[in-house]
Each structure stands twice: as structure tokens, then as C-alpha cells.
Amino acid sequence: VDNAHASQQYNLKLEPVSATVEVKPEPDKTRVSSLVTVSEARQAAAVSQLNPVKYQSSPSLAGKRKKEVSDSSGWALSDTDDDDGEVKANSLSNLPNRAPSSPKTKKLKVEIKRPPSPHGRLYYIDEPEDFFESSIPCLNDTYRFYLNKVTGLDRKYNSGALHIKDILSPLFGTLKESVQFNYCFDIEWMVKQYPSEDRPVLIVHGDKREAKARLVQQAQPFPHVRFCQAKLDIAFGTHHTKMMLLWYEEGFRVIILTSNLIRADWYQKTQGMWMSPLFPRLPKGSSASAGESPTFFKRDLLEYLASYRAPELEEWIQRIKEHDLSETRVYLIGSTPGRYVGSDMERWGHLRLRKLLYDHTEPIPGEERWPVIGQFSSIGSMGLDKTKWLAGEFQRTLTTLGKSSVRPEPPMHLLYPSVEDVRTSLEGYPAGGSLPYSIQTAQKQLWLHSYFHRWKADTTGRSHAMPHIKTYMRVSPDFTELAWFLVTSANLSKAAWGALEKNNTQMMVRSYELGVLYVPSTFTFPVHKNPFPVSSSSLGFPVPFDLPPTCYSAKDRPWIWNISYSQAPDTHGNIWVPS
């Protein structure tokens, strides 16, 4: 977006956004820092503490805003060493007491209701009529990797991309039942995305106590929505997996994605998904091993679901067993909370990725010149220096190529938006609510910032749609070929990927995560230089951002969500002032 025209061009009609409210980590272990408007921009932010401030606001507008703010729920940011950064709103009852702003202020009732979005109540513009698919879209089904549609982009950049309404529409099958695994939910909004409002939906979530009560409360008007609580027995773990299981009259489908089930995540962010083919039902009396894929996707998906130890998922495990998943060409990579020893260490997290790369890729001549790229939207605590985790066990995983005994140290490029990327984005500063890197974590690992590269995505038209997608890959020195590619829910954190303990004899994973890995044994792998508009037969892989990545300049700073940015207004004329 040309900045000079940004506020004009994206003069958005605003409306309320819904979100759920809570802080994820165990309350007794949580250090709550200043309240900020920054939960995932999708979720909503501490509007009561930090409302994006108009650069030049009229007194009447300021007065109106103040009133809006006074009846909102508060938000808290947890600052923990292993927090993954996807932080939810906290209920008022959990917040530190604050003096009333004036003697006339009424005492707030603690109500179970959704707070406003960091975007403000009147932010969203409705998508144009032709935004959603009315016939089966032209999709590149070679890789089955798709980006989300982005409101406000040139149409060509949304061709072959998908909105949640498209995914759930009858174009892809006649839905009977579905399961939604996710982190953050707006139940009312989610229900509206389905073609009919009475097909049973099971929600798999990680909420506890008050947060769980609020989630259940959201679903009261919708008796067809049921819940399954994922066990989170390790502090600071989250249920971060994002997956849909869709059971149709015609068969069964799996979607593994990066978006939360809230409107902001499907609006102006770069997000991605793997959509499975339609899996047909197996003939009655098929053997237990029938319908397996060359990548053992069926076995691995059943093992992942079994890790929940949840009675509510049993019928889905049975259903999957009755379908033919043999067309699948990707490998499943999950994380599930626990401490693992022996061969179990390779079942989850980054050691699972390491094992797959060891078994299913080949050494490459000159591989020390093939960079590793990691791209994510949140950053955990990495330790006092790079050797503690990033350049130690995690880099060892990312640089594995077949059974090569050579252990080269190729370049590692980490993509994370700069302050300028966020400021000039379609959403403006509120996009930073989905990029929850805290000052407390950043100050402890300044060494990390030398790895950082800008978010630039001109090839997909998404340079100004801030990333909530997470991707990891190994690319050739000339950036034209991939050794492998992974799309996942896992951010750059030990909580998500796991960390070795007890002299490398134990792997500890805190969170649930899920992604899919593409390797050359199941695909050919050139990079597609111009993935839009989409054609159904394209051979190139649609990497969602520009290659080669652009290194931060001396002036660039990584986006940190709980400090002020008041020197320059964003594309909507706002500044960002946490209090």
C-alpha cells in the first residue's frame, strides 16, 4: 500500500468484533505485566488500558471513545519464559485493582461477554458479494497448500485462496458433522460461517476454569455446539493446534491451518492451510491397515488424536479408520504435552521433524550454502545466547538432510515483522496484537535480532497483510528450489517445539501444535515465482513471501507489542500507546 493513500484507500467501515477472553498459562505461575491492547489482534486488546489513539482526534470523538472504553473487559499479557505469545484476554476479576478514573464512574459488573477488538468497534468492512466462491474455485491441487483470502487485495491475489466460508461451503462436500481444534474462538461468528446452523460441531480447546465457563457461555444459544477440553498438565502449555475434521455425506476431509476461529484472523492477515483431498469411505470389512498413505498420515493422525485421551474423540477416531486416506502426500508433525524418553522422543516436536528429514530427504552437494528459513508470529524465550536452544538442538533439526554425517552450519534467516511492517500494514498498529513479542523477552535475547528479516510478500500481494502463518523451509542458494517445506501452528518457542532435558535423554513439550511437512520424495520442488493468479497445474511451490528474504536494516526494529509507538501514525491515523 502506498502510505500516502493508505488511510484513504482503506477507509474502513467499522463494526464490533467478537473474541473470547482469557490468559492461557497456569494462573499461579503467571506474572501479569502491564495491560495492553494486544492479545492476538484477532482476539481483541486491553482496550480499557490501550486504545489505539487517533493521531489527531476531535474532542467529540475522544469523548465517545472514552465511553466505549469504560465498559470494556480488561486484557492481561502473560510474561513467561515459555509462553508462546498467543495470549487471550483476561477477565476483570483477575486484574489488579485500579483506582476509578472519576468519582462518577460506576463500578463495573463482571459480565461474561466478549470485549471489543483492538481494531475498535467499527473497524471491519464487509466483503464484496463476489469475495466468496459460488462455484468450485480453480485450486492448485498439486500441493493442496492455500492462503486465506485477504479483504482489500486486488482480486487476482485472492484467486485460489480460501475463506472459512468457502472451506465449509457445499462446494467441498455436504457436511454432516465437524470438529474444530483451535486456540481462540468466537462461537457466534464461527457458527455463521457454516452453511446451516444445526450440523453438530465439536470444539476442542484448552480453556480451564473461568475461561472455560466463558467459552461454554458463548455457545449457549447454539445447542449443536459441544466441547472437548484438551488436557494441559504442564505449566505455560497451550492448545495451539488448528485443525478441522469435516465429515460429509460423500466422505471425510482434514484441514490443518494457522487461523484462529475469530473474524480478525480471516480478514487482513496472511494465513495458510493444507486441505486434504476428499477421503472416500473404505468398503465394509476392510482390514485395519487399509487406506494408509505412503506417508503414514492415517496412522499418525490417529496417534495424534489418541494423545488427547478424550472420550469425545473416540467416534471420530473410528470414523477416520473407516476412510481411505491413501491419497495423502504430506507428513504430519504434531506436538502434544509431555515428557518423552527413548524412541518416544521422536514422536513429537522438533525431534519428529528431525527424524522425518533424516528418513525422507537426501544429502545435497554444497548443502552448507542452502539457507534454513523460519517464519512465525510469536517468539518465546530462547535463553541467554544462541547455543542454549536455537543454534543447538533446534538448528540441528532444521539442518538435517538425509543420513549425511556432515553437520554444516548454513545461513539461518528468521522472518518476523518490523515496526515499520506493522505500521504500514492494512490493519495498522492493531495488527501487532497478533505479534505478541514482549519487551521482557526481547531484552533478554538481543542476540536473536541479528537473524531477523522483514515481512515482504509482493509475489502473493500480501506485503501489507501481516503474517499469522508459520512456515519453515530449506531453500537452495539461488532461492529457486526447496529441500522441504513445513506449514504449522508452531511459533519459534521451546513450548511449541519441545526442548531436550536430562543430558539430552528426555524431551519436554508443553503445547499442542500441528503442521504438515512436504518433502521431495513425494513432490518435485521448484519455487513458484508468481503464484497468483492460480492455475490448477502449476509445478512451482507457492512460498507465501518473497525470496530471498530482506535483512533488517540498521534502523529496523522487531515489532514488540507492549511498548509505545507514537512518533508516526499508522495507515488508519492511529498511534499505539500501552499504559
UniProtKB/TrEMBL annotation:
The family this protein is said to belong to: Belongs to the tyrosyl-DNA phosphodiesterase family.
Any one GO molecular function term: single-stranded DNA binding
Region (Disordered): 55-107
Residues binding substrate, per UniProt: K242, K470
InterPro entries in UniProt: Tdp1 (IPR010347)
Site (Interaction with DNA): S493
Subunit architecture: Monomer.
Keywords, in A-Z order: Cytoplasm, DNA damage, DNA repair, Exonuclease, Hydrolase, Nuclease, Nucleus, Phosphoprotein, Repeat
Organism: Mastacembelus armatus
Active site: H240 (nucleophile), H468 (proton donor/acceptor)
Bias-annotated ranges (Polar residues): 90-103
UniProt protein name: Tyrosyl-DNA phosphodiesterase 1
Keyword Cell membrane: no
Gene Ontology cellular component annotations, sorted alphabetically: cytoplasm; nucleus
The keyword Transmembrane helix belongs to this UniProt entry's keyword annotation: no
Subcellular locations according to the entry: Cytoplasm; Nucleus
Physiological role: DNA repair enzyme that can remove a variety of covalent adducts from DNA through hydrolysis of a 3'-phosphodiester bond, giving rise to DNA with a free 3' phosphate. Catalyzes the hydrolysis of dead-end complexes between DNA and the topoisomerase I active site tyrosine residue. Hydrolyzes 3'-phosphoglycolates on protruding 3' ends on DNA double-strand breaks due to DNA damage by radiation and free radicals. Acts on blunt-ended double-strand DNA breaks and on single-stranded DNA.
Signal peptide residue numbers: none
GO biological process: single strand break repair
Organism domain of life: Eukaryota
